[in-house]
Write a structure and sequence with these properties.
Chain B: Residues 1057-1191 form the Trs120/TRAPPC9 fourth Ig-like domain. Chain B: Belongs to the NIBP family. The structure holds two protein chains of two kinds. By secondary structure, chain A is of the alpha+beta class. In chain A, 40% of the residues lie in helices and 24% in strands. Chain A has one domain: Beta-Lactamase, CATH 3.30.450. The longest helix of chain A has 24 residues, at 25-48. Chain B is α+β, with helices and mostly antiparallel strands. Chain B has six domains: 29-217, Rossmann fold (3-Layer(aba) Sandwich); 218-308 and 330-355 and 377-385, no CATH class; 568-586 and 612-721, Immunoglobulin-like (Sandwich), CATH 2.60.40; 727-817 and 899-916, no CATH class; 844-883 and 926-1046, no CATH class; 1054-1191, Immunoglobulins (Immunoglobulin-like), CATH 2.60.40.10. Chain B is 33% helix and 28% strand. In chain B, strands 37, 39, 40, 42, 44, 45 and 46 form a seven-stranded mixed beta sheet that branches. In chain B, strands 2-3-1-4-5-6 form a six-stranded mixed beta sheet. In chain B, strands 11, 13, 15, 17, 18 and 19 form a six-stranded mixed beta sheet that branches. Mean pLDDT of chain B is 74; it is low at 3-16, 144-177, 313-341, 604-614, 831-887, 996-1001 and 1165-1177. Classes of the chains: A alpha+beta, B alpha+beta. At the A-B interface, helix 1 of A face helix 14, helix 16 and helix 19 of B.
């Protein structure tokens, strides 16, 4: 079960941020923000490798005392970040991957919405509940 | 990375033997000789000290040739501070030992020199255990006082004991007391400083090398156990002689030798030792020392691979981004390094360095007391990976640092974060760096910190801004719109607090303003309110103003402006009032060639149809020294009343004087506000925004900094024209109640008057120059929807008179007279079509004509002539036809008096002002001629115009219809008046007759005749009326009176002069001839052509008839009378002034009343006559009046 999920735009500004516990949001924002450094670095090294990697999943970015941060980057450089409680041993890499894939498809849906202006922060309530469901694994 | 068995092996009871972490270490420092550079005394200025320190610090690499002839590359590390406790770890890692001491001091007198020497000695004592050698650099007084210091060694005995000791030692015995003093002048270049230092390093090296040799000669089996400081208690009671322990001793010593070799520049040996030591220590599970051996291995390998890696060299990560890290590492070492590398078997490949470091750190982590070693190792490892360009590895090493639980002072914790931040930024992890900087900043002021340092906190906060995508320039900030708003808001709030606590109220206000300006859309409404209130309290201490602030560090904080408080919903420059607008004085159109329009736009820009810039130029003009207005719509987004004071316009270009405005804005309601000002100069004026003073902050809200959504151009451009005069216009008439048809915004005043038809009046218009400049040009023009000719009759103004008034100096006024006349058609519209004058008024001639002219065709002829005569009438009256259709009701004429004036510079630049006075003339019906007819008068030269005049007013009217005769008409009554009028003389008609022979149509001639005759009547008849009740006077004209053919004959003079004699007597008009039945009356008549041309085919006709006075005329006279001679006579041609005579006799058989009609017919034209003989009556001239006979 993830405790926080974030969607970050091309310019590294947050487009969407949700935490299970709203009080911790700011704290998580700091963590997710610092994990972006690693995402950037991984992306740069990807470029260095020459071939554009098909793998969108970046794996674990950071392992903090209490949390693990996972990253996922779409081909359009939209970053998805999931923060997972590190005490949670149930979640395996595969689950994280599928979680990202679900988020990606949700994101694709919201971008297809004609009322959503690409680049704007996502404020759809429906989207938030969907993402929360993905995070809590109730989907 | 942390070992899961951490702390297991370390004794929890042992007292933490804390040394101070040195975060700045590089792995290369393992090979360096540690030298402390000390600043002694207060005489030496810190700046000078740091200058010398930098100079000394340049000498970090000394090449020394040893006894075997090999060149040793010795590294030196200079530090400014070294805690003594760190020496305790010298056994563990020899580079931690302080080997040398250089102290710098300045003295002016002997006492100070003594003091410096004493302090130097005390340092020597402090680091006694490890110190090999020391130097004391002394800066003496300049010039003359230098000589005594030079002489000091000579006169050593006379000086102070301590001082003499040092000086003597310097020169004599370096063996037992190794302080050598170097005397320099403060201003001297100290040229031998480097060589002295070189010598100093040499001495350190030789001592160290001798130690190394000494150690290496020891038998490895017998060496004592080397201990890390905290290990002392662990080995109490252990069997020191065990095989395991022996091995431990050997391993540790081997590692120690490796350290020494590394320091003395023997890389190969050190690698070998380290490798051996690692083997041995691994076997005995001596983790701590194994870690140290690995670290040493890494350090020496790094030295082989990256000999140039050193501090203070910024890493250009981006530049080397494309290159692979292995390639880079292979590139950087020089040829010697490569050679060594090849020969060295134990050297690690780059990838292994970080691996080994990782292992070492894991081993260290098993010991709680080795925390500092672990931390330092992490930093060193990170630096190597930075060099290798492995950002992620570096990040993981740095991440590890955070987890190490150290009992550190706050200061050291802060340093740790600062170093982390520095390294993070080196690997390009700017966010992480910013995070660390922020943590460091908060540490400075954490509650645990006994001495909070808000200044440092603020400085670090500032440094962390870029990592959060924060830029103190609000303009760029808003343009970029990047970053994480929630975090940015928090950071800015912290920054505000830090600035406030530091004492920079101005900065605090500035940052808060910045926060409100840039983060406004991201703030919730409660936050907005709270921050606004906070800003208010901050600005109470220091008012915010839009000027850049310069920090001590040289950082410039650009001004921030409250562009969202209040929100500007509209910014509209207003055109001047219409009558104040300057207008171009029209000049002749320039010839722009044959093309009026071209679709080709030269100079491009046709594609982007309406770019923002093009719309910024406003299409109206402002006038110098005239109040200019910009309308703002402001919305207060805060839930409380907001007072905005000192609002002004921000302008560029021409000089502009703005009037400050103050407004109190209620929450959430858009309030309109007008900002005024005067342009004090002509030219182009740029309106770039407005300034406010609210919440204690002065802001310059420029349009180009407004949110993009509001869509303002960067500025508005207005052309300001030179000063123009201003006229105040007033009239002597009351203003009109309504401004209806004439919708002209220029109208400044109005004048309305009611006039009866035919009445005239004059209106005085007063023009006052209300400006500072004289009026030098004035044009007056009257406009209306009427035709110009008619308009001229109604409104009249003397234009030539106006120019006499010019120029009108400021403050003066002039009067202009405007004449009004109520023009009307006094004739009832349909009267002429069907004359309804009763039969008794009509002459017998009418009936005779009807009979004489065969019916059918005549009416049609009449009709057509009337139709065309109507059009002829309209050519006179013009637009009046529509206007007067509803007669006799009241009608209203609207007009406009247009004033065009200018003066002073405005005139010279061809601008003027226009204003207009609305004129309303209500025309009331006075009288109307409902019917008219003409009757022959008693005198041949006159006729009677009989008019039915209706008084359309409700008052009694006195009508003067001839100069002598007046009559009173009651209100709404009508009466009939005969007016004797002179007949239309032939002279007026001659023109027509000359054309008689030409091919012209009857009707046209008739019209022309009609016109001439009606003009004739109009000229002669004027009906002067006078309303007795209201004393209004006026003149009614019969303009456009329409006459029938019959009337025309009466009106105009006959072209033929008649001379009729009966029995030789000339007939007098209105005279009855009395005779007896049976009398023979001799009729003699002659016709004289008074025209200028010859008349042809004239027929003279005499006809008798009886008028029964009841409308019946009897022409059957065969039984009543007889004539002798012809009653008809043809005259083939009649020359001008020629006379045609005819004679006949008549005998009346029965008594009665007879009449005789004598007429002379001329064919209208010859062709007509030929074609249609029935209509031979082209022209009939009658002898009037008809002759009456009373036969008894």
């Amino acid at each position: 079960m993830a405790v926080c999920a974030a969607i970050i735009g091309k310019d590294n500004s947050p487009k969407f941020f949700v935490t299970i516990n709203p009080d911790e949001e700011l704290q998580f924002q700091y963590r997710v923000l610092s994990s972006l450094d690693i995402v950037e670095d991984k992306l740069n090294s990807g470029v260095k490798g020459g071939a554009d990697t098909k793998e969108l999943y970046l794996g674990m970015l950071l392992s903090l005392e209490a949390h693990k941060i996972y990253g996922y980057v779409t081909n359009t450089k939209i970053k998805f970040i999931i923060v997972v409680d590190s005490t949670n041993m149930v979640l395996r890499d595969n689950e994280i991957r599928s979680m990202f894939r679900k988020i990606h498809s949700e994101y694709a849906d919201i971008v297809s919405n004609p009322f959503y202006i690409p680049g704007e922060p996502i404020s759809s309530k429906n989207f938030t509940t969907n993402i929360k469901n993905i995070m809590t694994g109730t989907v | 990375m942390r070992s899961s068995v951490s702390y297991i092996l370390s004794s929890s009871t042992s007292e933490p033997n804390m040394s101070h972490p040195d975060y700045d270490q590089y792995s290369h420092d393992h090979a360096a000789l540690l030298v402390l550079v000390k600043h002694i005394g207060t005489q030496l200025k810190p700046k000078l000290f740091s200058k010398f320190f930098d100079r000394i610090n340049k000498l970090v690499n000394v090449r020394i040739t040893d006894s075997t002839g090999a060149v040793r590359n010795i590294l030196i590390r200079y530090v400014k501070d070294h805690p003594v406790e760190n020496n305790d770890w010298g056994d563990f890692q020899t580079h931690r030992r302080l080997l040398g001491l250089i102290s710098l001091g300045k003295y002016d007198c002997q006492q100070e020199l003594n003091e410096i020497c004493r302090v130097h000695e005390s340092f020597k004592v402090k680091y006694n255990t490890t110190l090999f050698d020391s130097r004391c650099i002394l800066f003496g007084p300049t010039k003359n006082s230098e000589s005594p210091t030079d002489e000091n060694p000579v006169s050593s005995s006379s000086g102070d004991s301590e001082h003499s000791e040092t000086t003597i030692e310097k020169f004599t015995t370096p063996s037992n007391f190794k302080t050598r003093a170097l005397f320099y002048e403060i201003t001297s270049p100290c040229s031998d400083l480097e060589s002295q230092l070189n010598e100093f390093v040499n001495s350190l090296f030789w001592v160290l090398d001798s130690k190394r040799v000494e150690r290496s000669r020891e038998k490895l089996e017998r060496v004592s156990l080397l201990l890390a400081p905290f290990e002392k208690k662990d080995f109490v009671g252990l069997d020191m002689e065990s095989r395991n322990n022996k091995k431990r001793c050997t391993g540790r010593m081997t590692k120690h030798l490796g350290d020494l070799c590394l320091q003395t520049g023997m890389l190969t040996e050190s690698l070998n030792y380290y490798a051996q030591a690692a083997e041995i220590l691994k076997s005995v599970n001596d983790w701590l020392w194994l870690g140290a051996a690995y670290e040493g291995l890494c350090a020496s390998s790094a030295l082989v691979l990256y000999p140039d890696m050193q501090r203070n060299v910024p890493l250009h990560r981006n530049a080397s981004l494309q290159e692979g890290s292995p390639r880079k590492s292979s590139q950087t070492p020089p040829a010697i390094g490569l050679g060594i590398k090849k020969s060295i078997s134990n050297a690690l490949v780059p990838e292994d360095i970080s691996k080994k470091y990782r292992e070492a750190i894991i081993h260290y982590s098993k010991y709680q007391n080795a925390g500092i070693i672990e931390t330092e190792a992490s930093f060193k490892a990170a630096r190597i990976t930075v060099e290798q360009n492995h950002a992620l590895q570096a990040a993981s090493f740095l991440q590890n640092v955070v987890y190490i639980n150290l009992q550190l002072s706050e200061q050291e914790k802060i340093q740790r974060f600062e170093t982390l931040a520095e390294l993070y930024s080196q690997i390009g992890f700017c966010r992480k760096a910013a995070f660390c900087l922020r943590l460091a900043a908060t540490r400075y002021v954490s509650p645990q910190n006994q001495a909070p340092n808000w200044g440092r906190c603020y400085a670090l906060m500032l440094q962390s801004l870029p990592g959060h995508h924060l830029n103190l320039d609000p303009v760029e900030m808003r343009a970029a719109d990047q970053g994480w708003p929630a975090l940015q808001i928090q950071l800015m709030q912290e920054l505000v607090v830090a600035a406030r606590r530091t004492g920079h109220s101005a900065l605090a206000t500035r940052h808060m303003t910045f926060l409100l300006q840039t983060m406004w859309p991201h703030l919730s409404s409660t936050e907005q309110k709270e921050l606004a209130v906070q800003l208010q309290s901050l600005s109470a201490q220091c008012e915010g103003s839009p000027v850049p602030l310069v920090l001590d560090s040289g950082l410039v904080v650009p001004p921030a402006n409250l562009t969202d408080i209040p929100i500007c919903a509209a910014f509209v420059p207003k055109d001047l009032q219409p009558h104040l607008r300057p207008r171009r004085i029209e000049c002749d159109k320039l010839d722009t060639g044959p093309f009026l329009f071209t679709p080709i736009h030269f100079g491009g820009g046709s594609l982007d149809r309406r770019s923002r810039k093009s719309s910024s130029k406003l299409d109206f003009l402002w006038v110098q020294n005239e109040v200019c207005e910009v309308q703002l719509k402001l919305v207060n987004p805060l839930p409380f009343e907001l007072k905005v004071s000192n609002m002004r316009l921000l302008t560029g270009g021409a000089v502009f004087e703005s009037v400050p405005e103050t407004i109190v804005l209620p929450p959430d309601i858009a309030t309109s506000l007008t900002l005024n000002g005067w342009a004090r100069e002509s030219g182009e004026l740029e309106l770039s925004g407005y300034s406010t003073h609210t919440l204690g902050v002065k802001s310059n809200c420029r349009l180009r900094h407004m949110p993009v959504s509001s869509n303002y151009p960067p500025y508005y451009k207005v052309q300001v024209v030179p000063a123009l005069p201003l006229l105040e216009v007033s009239t002597s008439f009351p203003p009109s109640v309504s401004f209806s048809n004439f919708h002209d915004e220029n109208t400044v005043t109005s004048a309305s008057v009611s006039l009866y038809h035919g009445e005239s009046t004059e209106c005085i218009i007063t023009l006052k120059n209300a400006s500072e400049v004289p009026v030098e040009m004035l044009e007056i023009e009257i406009n209306s929807i009427l035709e110009p000719s008619l308009q001229e009759q109604i409104f009249r103004c003397d234009n030539t008179e106006i120019n006499k008034f010019l120029p009108i100096p400021p403050g003066e006024s002039v009067n202009v007279t405007l004449y009004f006349h109520s023009v009307a058609n006094f004739l009832a519209p349909n009267a002429s079509v069907s004359p309804t004058i009763p039969q008794d008024m009509s002459s017998g001639m009418f009936s005779s004509m009807n009979t004489s002219i065969p019916g059918g065709s005549i009416p049609s002829r009449f009709n057509s002539s009337f139709r065309s005569s109507n059009s002829g009438q309209s050519s006179i009256a013009g637009g009046l036809t529509t206007l007067f259709q509803q007669q006799p009701s009241t009608s209203v004429i609207e007009g406009q008096l247009k004033l065009k004036y200018s003066g002073a510079e405005g005139l010279s630049s061809e601008y003027c002002r226009t204003c207009s006075v609305f004129l309303m003339l209500e025309m009331l019906p006075s009288l109307q001629v409902t019917n008219w007819d003409v009757l022959p008068a008693e005198i041949h030269s006159q006729f009677y115009l009989v008019l039915d005049i209706a008084n359309l007013t409700t008052q009694e009217m006195e009508l003067q219809y001839t100069p002598m005769k007046t009559m009173l008409i009651e209100g709404n009554e009508s009466c009939r008046v005969p007016i004797p009028v002179d007949r239309c003389p032939l002279s007026k008609l001659t023109g027509l007759y000359q054309e008689l022979n030409e091919d012209s149509l009857d009707s046209r001639n008739e019209i022309d005749v009609n016109k001439i005759c009606s003009e004739h009547i109009t000229d002669l008849v004027d009906l002067r009326w006078h309303l007795l009740g209201t004393d209004n006077r006026g003149i009614a004209l019969l303009k456009g009176i329409n006459l029938t053919l019959r009337m025309l004959d009466i009106v105009r003079m006959s072209p033929l002069n008649w001379e009729v004699k009966i029995n030789g007597d000339i007939i007098k008009a209105q005279e009855e001839i009395t005779c007896e039945a049976g009398d023979c009356l001799n009729l003699k008549m002659s016709v004289i052509n008074s025209l200028q041309k010859t008349l042809q085919q004239l027929t003279l006709n005499i006809q008798f008839y009886q008028d029964y006075e009841n409308g019946t005329l009897n022409y059957r006279m065969d039984t009543r009378l007889a004539t002798t001679g012809c009653t008809k006579k043809s005259v083939s041609s009649l020359e001008p002034q020629a006379k045609a005579d005819h004679e006949c006799n008549v005998i009346f058989f029965t008594p009665g009343y007879y009449k005789m009609d004598i007429q002379c017919c001329a064919p209208e034209s010859l062709t007509v006559t030929r074609v249609n003989t029935l209509l031979s009556t082209g022209h009939i001239w009658r002898f009037t009046p008809t002759v009456s006979f009373q036969v008894n």
